[in-house]
Structure formats: structure tokens, C-alpha cells
Amino acid sequence: MRPVTVSVGPLAAAAANNIALSQTPGAAGALTLNGALVSGGIATLDNSRRVLITTADTTTLFTVIGTTPTGSALSESLKVVAGASYTAQDFKTVTSITTNQGTTAAVTVGTNGVASTPWVRLDEWADPHTSIQCNVVGTVSYTVQFSNDDPNDPTNPVLPSAMTWLNSNDTNVVNAIASFLTNLTWTSRYVRTVLNSGSGSVTMTVIQANVVNR
User: Fold this and answer.
1) How far apart are CA 1 and CA 147, in angstroms?
2) How many Å apart are CA 120 and CA 6, to the nearest integer?
């Protein structure tokens, strides 16, 4: 496998209402996107990152629609737990946020300090030995995660927003703050690095041994 390099950060300062200012919709429909990141009805984020919804309403289903950094369509539905929840996926733009009912409390939509690198697909038919190097610039906390779920699985596809991501069993790359090289002796389907917090950036380079022709 040729080396694959992906990165995340630095992120602009988070703001809980930079996509949608406080509002309490009385019926199902679209929220008004009127935060500081919105122009022409579309919120454009500085980096592909999580979308934060803040409200005391725990029953309304919010659907966030937007795009990835490459312009592919992206959507995710979620309910808010304990006052604030954020998407599992990273949005570069947000074009619409809808509710399935009127909300019982005011709602704001914005960003937090969490984002992740693009996913790197490993080859489960190749040699499992893989090196993963994370280079840090500035101040960050990051975690390397893996998943065997796959939206493209022919028999058991999983929605991107429903993927189960597990932290590396190498604790050196869980809530890490410094550059580090970790190794795999087994193969997962996907690997990514999550920027948990901080004003810096993380660049991850993945090299998997051998390629199997099939």
C-alpha cells in the first residue's frame, strides 16, 4: 500500500451559534441558518468538522444536511442528549437543518473543537502489518481510531453516521499530545485520527505492508 497522508486542524475558535442563532421553531421544518458562518443561506466551516446542536429539547429529531470537503452530499440525524450533542460526521458546509416537530426549548447550532481526518481504507487482504505516524504541530489532544464497519459492505452496510469507531489499543495514541509512531499487527477496515481539542493540527501517515492482487 502506498503511503496515505491525511490531516486535521487547525480549527477556528468554536462557537455554539455560528451556524444558527437561538430560535424556537413552532412546527416541523427548517431552522433559519443565520449564524456568523452563513452566507447566501449556506454555512461554510473553516475545516470539515462536527456540528454542535445545543438545546434542552431531548425529543426532537434534527437532520443536518451539507457536504464533505470534496462536495459530496452528507446528512445525519440526531437527538440532543444532556443539553448539547454533536454530529458523528464532519461537515464542510451546512445547507439545511430540519426538525421533525416544533421544539420545546430554544435551539442554537454551531461548532465545537472536535474534527477528524478523512478515513483511510486499509486492505484486509494484504499483510496486516501497518505503521501509523502522527505528527503534531501546536497544541492538540488527539486519538487514533479504527472501525471494521463499512458503508460499502455488500451484505451488512452501515450508515457513515452509525459507524462504530474504537480507540486504538495503543494508549500512546489515545488522548495524545505529542507526535508518535504506532504499529498494527492486525488489519481493520478504516483508520482515522480524531482531534479532540486544541489549536494545532495532526497529520497522519499510514503505510501498510504488501498488496494482494485479487
Assistant:
1) 18
2) 8
